[in-house]
Specification:
Blueprint (H helix, E strand, L loop, with lengths): L5 E4 L35 H10 L4 E5 L6 E6 L5 H12 L6 E4 L5 E6 L8 E2 L6 E4 L4 E4 L11 E2 L11 E2 L2 H7 L15 E2 L3 H14 L4 H15 E2 L4 H12 L5 H8 L5 H6 L2 H7 L5 H17 L4 E4 L4 E2 L4 E5 L6 H10 L2 H7 L23 H10 L3 E6 L3 H7 L7 H8 L4 E4 L5 E4 L3 E8 L1 H8 L11 E4 L14 H24 L5 E4 L2 H20 L5 H26 L9 E3 L2 H25 L7 H8 L7 H10 L4 H13 L3 E5 L2 E4 L10
Parallel strand pairs: 5-10, 11-12, 13-21, 15-19, 15-20, 16-19, 21-22
Antiparallel strand pairs: 1-2, 2-8, 3-5, 3-7, 4-5, 4-9, 6-7, 13-14, 17-18, 23-24
Amino acid sequence: MLGWYVFPVQTPRHDGSCTCGNSGCSNIGKHPRTPHGFNDATIDPEQIRKWWTTRPEANIGVRTGPKSGLFALDVDLHSGGYESLDDLITSYGDLPDTLIAETGGGGKHYFFRHPDVPVRCSAGKLGSGLDVRGEGGYIIVAPSQHASGKGYVWELGSAPDEAELAEAPEWLLDELQGRGPELGEGSVGKTLLEGSRNESLTSLAGSMRRRGMSEEAIGAALQAENRLRCNPPLSEEEVQRIAHSVSRYAPAERQEQLDDYPEVPDHVFGLLPESIQRTLNCFSSKQQKTILLVARMAVDGACMPNVWTQMETAEYAPDVINFIIGPPASDKSIAVNYGKRIGMSVEQHLAGHAQEPVYPMQTRCLFLPGNTSASALIHGLQANGGSGCIVESESDVLNSATRQEWGEFKHLIRQAASHEDISINRVDGGRLWVANPRLSACITGTPDQCTRFLQSTENGLYSRINLFRISGVARPRSQRPSTRNAEREEIFEREQNLNLAMYQLLAVRSEKLLFELSPPQWERHDAMVEELFDLAQMEDDEYLRASALRAGISAIRFAMQFAVRRAFDRGVRLDVINCLVAEDGDVDAAIELTKVLVRHAFAFSRELAGGRKESPEKRMLELLPDTEYRRAEIVAAASRIGFKERSADTCHKRLLDRGSVVKVRHGVFRKKTESSIQTPE
């Protein structure tokens, strides 16, 4: 007995259709037959016998992860998987002998023993055409049938009765855990391709500057890495510009900026539903992926009608209000516009299949313009059953409207974000009214533009938005067309059509689809809110506590979106089921993403204050002794600015992480001085 947890999966028919009966099925022969998908997988012989007695033709799904004790590397023939695998083997060495299966589509599955560390599902993280099936996933195994008409078969000599499940090589686990070689370790690291060269060299430059290296030393090191690692190399002038840009910061200043606006952790992208990962992987820059994710969540939420979750005192839909803030020419609008495209098939469907959005506003539409009046906004929501989505790539569009008396509708956005009834009085004595509205929005702009729109943390809107601040400065980039453009267009066209199919399943429901968390998931959710509330208390702004408390709503909304989309991708009948329970991966991704966006909101509040507010870390650093000190002095300094003991430890750990203070010996610390910064010989 292998001890693998199995469950029945749909099967391709001889005519090419799927046994699920959906004529538009996009996952033929690969999605579960059971009500709860791979969560129904079992090793119970009686249940397994019952399933395959009833449906002997059913394909076989194996739940991957710790339960079955395995994970799988999926090599896709048509997406360059074999080429990507060859690149990895060339850099790190061969894969060990293990169980290997050939898929009906010309690809391969490599099976490995599950390690003691988490292995999340991912698509394209290791390279184009290389997917991983671990926690929160499953794999189809022989003798199942493929949509191509061929079957899954074990490779000769590599079947379970001929070979053993091997341990994954250390380099593979390092890549999956994001522990790959750091830049600067020599030519054994991964090649940097177009789209990632500038960002990677800038990150390396920032690391060297934090250690006190001069512009000349940084430039020399970057030129060497550029020649060894970049394909094709950047020009020497561009590399020197990176060194000069980063060297404008004091040695610790850039790290402080990056700590204030942390990145989304790498593993979060691997937790997302595969369809979302496919669109994000169209961009090589991590920052562009994050922008696209934040933008599409506003659109995805608006494309999920009749989905709700119950929290303590109210129900919430998956709609979100997101802000993306970045310097001019930072390419934020490119990813945002691709995010908007995901909803265009729904837009055209609502507007009678028109090629462009149809106005006046009384016509049904998904997207509502930002440069509008309060009454027109309500008319648009009314025409679409109380829902809509605003996507604007320049927040000045909203600024120009809200400066007019007729256009002031920020209070409507604030109310709609909480599904509060909205209304305005008409000049003729009448009244416009929308009960229980659903409004999503993604607004982008420069710091100055968004400061003019948001104004302060006190207006009630700030605590209801999710904010992502783009770090760094704009740099020149190549304008040459890429061979990836056609592939990107194809992926997004397919995605917007799938989004319409999902919308249509949800729109025909007569009752709400309820989304739920399990008790352990609620515990993780509540711990996140408590952690963020502690951070809010460290800020010199009482209104940010509301941001921390409302972050719990954002996390639920994110998890709801991920769970609905994952269920749709697997062929779950969203028009039939009554309840959808979150998977751990969806909740974990939502929590990590929420923590990042709230940290960005806290940091941007200091920009809103015009620099009059200092970060908690800077305030605490100023109060620490200039001589060596212990934890008692840390707590005493923190208490002078109102920090609790736990908050003091959190704040001091950040100072340690960014190098503002150093550990002298066990339990003894001191501030870092210029003389203590190590410079290269």
